[in-house]
Structure formats: C-alpha cells, structure tokens
Specification:
Radius of gyration: 32 Å
Number of strands: 19
Strand order of the largest sheet: 2-1-10-5-6
Number of domains: 4
Number of helices: 13
Low-confidence stretches: 182-226
Structural class: alpha+beta
Mean pLDDT: 90
Distance between the termini: 76 Å
Helix content: 25-40%
C-alpha cells in the first residue's frame, strides 16, 4: 500500500521548496530580460504597505542594526538586498504552505485518471495565481497611471502562466513521489510480499521471482522499467531544482542594464564649487564633500525596484482647492519656469549616528511658489497633499511654502535628469526636513483644507521631521602625520550638519578632556553639511575622540543619546584609535 502525504512529515515541504526556488529564479529572469513582474517583491511590497506601523519600524530598526553590527556594507544597498531575499523567502513560504495543504487535503482524494490529476494541478496553480496577479498589478499600477512597462495582458499572462505551470508540476511530482511501484504477476510471486501499512518497500527489498519472460531478450518484453525509491527521486528533483535556479539567476544577471543618463540643458555647473578656495582643507580620509550620484543613498517604501514612470505620458496634476486646476508636463516645468539650483544635504530620519544614510548633491527644479502663483489656491487651502507613483504620500503646509522660496519641485540632480531610483520624473525638496517628508515619483498635488498625517507619520514617526544637528568623525589620519613648528600633528576630520540652519562651530574632545574648537570649512550652501578639521598634537597610545557641533544659531546639538524613532537619532559620536 503506498504511503500517503499525511504519513510523511518532511516530503511535502521539501517538494514545495524544491519547486518554488526555480520558480523564483525564473521570475527574476523574466524581470531582467523582459521587464516582466518579479512577483516575490511585489507581494512583499503589498504586505509592507498593510502591516502595522510599529511592526514596520521595528523591522527597519532591526535590519539597520544587523547590517551595521555585521559590517555588511552600505545600509541602503544591503537593506534592499535583504528585503529582496526576504521577499523570495516569503514567496517560497507561501508556495510551500499552499503545496502542503494541497498534498494533504486534495491530492489523496483525486481519482486515478491522469486527466483529473492534470486538471487538479492546473486548478491549484490558478487558485494561487489569481490573487497574486491582482496584488502584483495593484503594486505596479494602482497609484501609477503612467506605468512604463509591459501591458496588463503580458503581466497577467506571465504570472498566471508561470504559477499554473508550477501547480501542474507540483501535481506531477506528488504523483511520482507517492506512487506505488508497478509490478505484474509474472514479475512477483503473489503472496510472497508481506508489508505493513505505511512501510516503504524498495525494489531491492521486494522478493522477485524471475520468469522466463523476464529473462528473454528486451525485444521480447518490449519494455524496461527503472525503479527508484522516493529518496532517490527527491535527490534527482533537488539536482534539477538547483540547476534551474542557478541558471535562471545567472542568466538574469547577464541582462542587467545600465540606467540611461540624460543631461539637462542648464548654464549652472554644480562641479564649480563655490567654496573651492576655502582656507580649511578636509583631513585625509574625510568623505567627499559632494557625493557622486552612484553613491547617493536611496531609501523608499519599495523592497526592490522603484516605480517605472513613462516620462512622455507623465503629467503633474495640481487640483483641489485651487482656482485653476492644471496639468504640467516635464517640459513645462523645465522650459516655462526659471530654474533653481541648490546644493542640498539630504538625510534619512532612520540614520544612525555616523550612519551612511546622508548625502550631498546639486538639485535643479522650480520653486513651489511659482506653481502656487499659477494655480491660485483658494483661501480655504491650508495644506497640499503630495502623492507618488509608489503609493507614498506626504503633507506640506501652504504657510511653509509661502515663507520659503527654496521649497522646490525637483527634476534634476547634478546636472542630469533624476534617475529612476532617485525619483524620476519629479520629487520635492523641503529644507530642514528629513527625507521621509519629501516624496519622489510625484504624480499629484491636491490643495486641501486641513492637515493629515503622511505615510510615515501614520506609522508613528515625527509629524514635522525637522533635521537634528549631528557631527561625525570620519577619520583619524594616523598615516598622515604633519609637522608644524616642530610639533607632530594628526589630522582628524569629518562632517557636521544641522539641516538648513548651518554650522557655526565644531568641538573635539580627546580622552574625556577639555573640548577644543576645530576648524570649519565653508559649506557649499546653507543647506549642506560642513566639513571640519582638527590637527591634534600626537601622543602615543590608544585614545578616544569625541565631537560635537553648534548650529548656525549657536545652539549645541543634543548630547543625550536618543534612538532614531520617532524624531531622528541624537548623541555624541566617538571613535577609539591607536596611534
């Protein structure tokens, strides 16, 4: 009597894993080769958007701490990789659980007819594929009317077809894994086999009586039968699964493309730094004052890929409590309004003290005040709801916009059109606010009559998210000792940042001694970090260095250590170094 799925604790989950791994790899290959949906991350994104805010922020904190503790590299890039792996694990888990349920409660009740079994596998696949396809499409297009990717038919056919095929494969594998080896009366002496229910009988254990027919030439029998037990079958299945998975991922990597770069036609060159002749030079080992675009951090609510927006079809709609509802193309914003050029340091509110979720580059755009002049908000309009193609949204007060001309709709970074991962075609810049208040991939702006909580505010983060002053030691340049007036000095340096408030002073302390003022380099602008330097008199031994800063108003940074949530991290950065 064949063993049933209920009698096996490990076979069904193993089959689920072995079949869902290559399925994930093929979805990855489809995404890389033809821009088809990578289903695992779409499901992950849907889950993230619907989980409680406290759970999401706990997950973010845990992930960042783990990345830093293990030294896994840049937080933003490593976090995206970890989120992708988590998404694949989630997808494989869903498929495996569904497969176990199918094997336990459906498979054993099927009639022996192969057509019924094939139809059952197909139905099983379709039952899983349909809700997954709906969720995936919502993530891709639910908030993005300008989606720049395959058609709905292509997306749906891809997902439904792949999972339907997986369902059929699952049925076929179950049939083979739990099938009873077939024998005939001429092969086995009736009554010579005594078995116990639930005990697997392998071909080697089966007493077989050889008949003349079985010793006849192959031409006489017409058939040869290879009998393998379940363990051997699963080993072969595992080998096939690993092969398809590796090939799928490998081929997918070959299709990776470089993002197209579009230069803006502008007279302003961000590389002509206004502080090029500043007297204070960065200490050796200090981070670049101007961040290369390839190194600029990226944090958003998407676990892997940013939303794809068709720039030709894209329109910015400004509606709500305005006298003139208007639509703007990207060319309208570029050509019909005087461009603004600003050097900006942007930071994530979840950045640790001395973390790498902070960068500086040049921003090009149009002042929001000019847009308000065009649409003429009514007296009742007090705030603007800004919506993005990925479902993100945030609120900006009218008063803040009218008081600060630097708030701008941005379409360029470093003299180029925004890259897709950084918000193409449009994002907003709001001075003195963390990145959580600054939507990317903007599609709509609606004038409303009252404040509402934005995306991250709903999940428990600070309502205003004003940047907190922070200072960081980047380097203790023990290999760059300088001599001045017969004194040997070690350059120490780093950055200090206080949003749009500027930096007036930086102080350094060694081994808990007195605070000593360092040199502050002229900043690129009032809205960027400042490079600081202190040449420390050389002393042998192991030393602890600390730094603190004062903003442009003379207010010292918060020295007390506070976590990132809900308002941003505070505290003193310290470094221990042997010299």
């Amino acid at each position: 009597m064949p063993e049933t799925p209920q009698q096996t604790n490990w076979t069904l989950p193993l089959i689920g894993i072995l079949l869902s791994a290559p399925l994930s790899a093929l979805f990855y290959l489809g995404e890389q080769a033809a821009d088809l949906p990578f289903l695992p991350t779409n499901l992950m994104d849907w889950l993230i958007r619907n989980l409680p805010g406290g759970l999401i922020t706990f997950g973010i904190d845990t992930m960042v701490d783990l990345i830093v503790w293990l030294g896994l590299g840049r937080v933003d890039e490593t976090a995206k990789l970890m989120e992708t792996l988590m998404a694949v694990g989630l997808f494989m888990g869903i498929c495996t659980v569904a497969g176990v349920a199918y094997g336990m409660y459906v498979y054993q009740r099927l009639p022996g007819n192969w057509r019924w079994q094939l139809a059952s596998g197909l139905g099983f696949g379709l039952a899983i594929a349909t809700p997954m396809a709906i969720v995936s499409d919502y993530i891709l297009t639910g908030n993005n009317p300008f989606y720049d990717g395959p058609t709905l038919l292509a997306r749906s056919t891809w997902i439904v077809g792949m999972i339907a095929a997986w369902g059929i494969a699952f049925q076929v594998v179950l049939q083979r894994a739990f099938a009873q080896p077939k024998t005939t009366a001429s092969d086995v002496e009736v009554g010579s086999i005594s078995t116990t229910v639930g005990t697997e009988v392998t071909p080697e254990e089966t007493p077989v009586r050889t008949s003349p027919a079985s010793t006849a030439p192959e031409k006489a029998s017409g058939t040869t039968i290879e009998r393998i037990n379940r363990r051997q079958f699963l080993i072969r299945l595992g080998g096939a699964s690993a092969t398809i998975t590796v090939i799928g991922v490998g081929l997918g990597e070959l299709f990776t493309e470089q993002e197209r770069v579009v230069s803006l036609e502008q007279d302003f060159d961000f590389q002509n730094f206004p502080n090029a002749n500043a007297g204070v030079m960065p200490a050796p080992g200090t981070r670049p004052e101007y961040t290369p675009l390839e190194d600029h951090y990226r944090i958003d609510i998407n676990s892997r890929n940013p939303p794809e927006v068709d720039g030709q079809r894209w329109r910015l709609t400004v509606s709500g409590l305005v006298e003139r509802e208007m639509e703007f193309t990207l060319d309208d914003l570029k050509n019909n309004y005087e461009p603004m050029y600003q050097y900006v340091t942007l930071s994530c509110i979840s950045n640790r003290i001395a973390g790498d979720l902070i960068s500086t580059t040049g921003w090009t755009g149009v002042s929001m005040q000019k847009i308000l002049e065009a649409v003429r908000p009514t007296e009742d309009a007090t705030h603007f709801l800004i919506s993005s193609a990925d479902g993100f949204f945030e609120i900006v007060s009218r008063e803040l916009i009218e008081d600060d001309e630097r708030i701008m709709l941005t379409y360029g970074w470093d003299g180029e059109e925004l890259r897709v991962k950084h918000g193409f075609p449009l994002r907003i810049y709001i001075p003195d606010r963390y990145g959580m208040k600054q939507p990317k991939w903007i599609t709509d702006i609606e004038a409303i009559s009252e404040w509402r909580p934005g995306y991250w505010v709903e999940k428990g983060w600070d309502r205003d998210a004003i940047m907190r002053a922070t200072s960081v030691i980047d380097t203790v340049a023990v290999d760059s000792v300088i001599t001045r007036d017969q004194d040997r000095l070690i350059p120490i340096g780093g950055i200090a940042h206080a949003g749009a408030r500027g930096i007036s002073k930086v102080e350094i302390r060694v081994d808990g001694g007195e605070w000593v003022e360092g040199q502050v380099r002229q900043s690129l602008s009032d809205t960027t970090w400042a490079i600081w330097r202190y040449d420390w008199p050389f002393e042998d031994g192991e030393h602890t260095f600390e730094v603190r800063c004062y903003d442009g108003n003379g207010e010292m940074q918060i020295l007390e250590e506070n976590s990132r949530r809900p308002s941003g991290a505070t505290g003193i950065h310290e470094v221990t170094q042997s010299v």
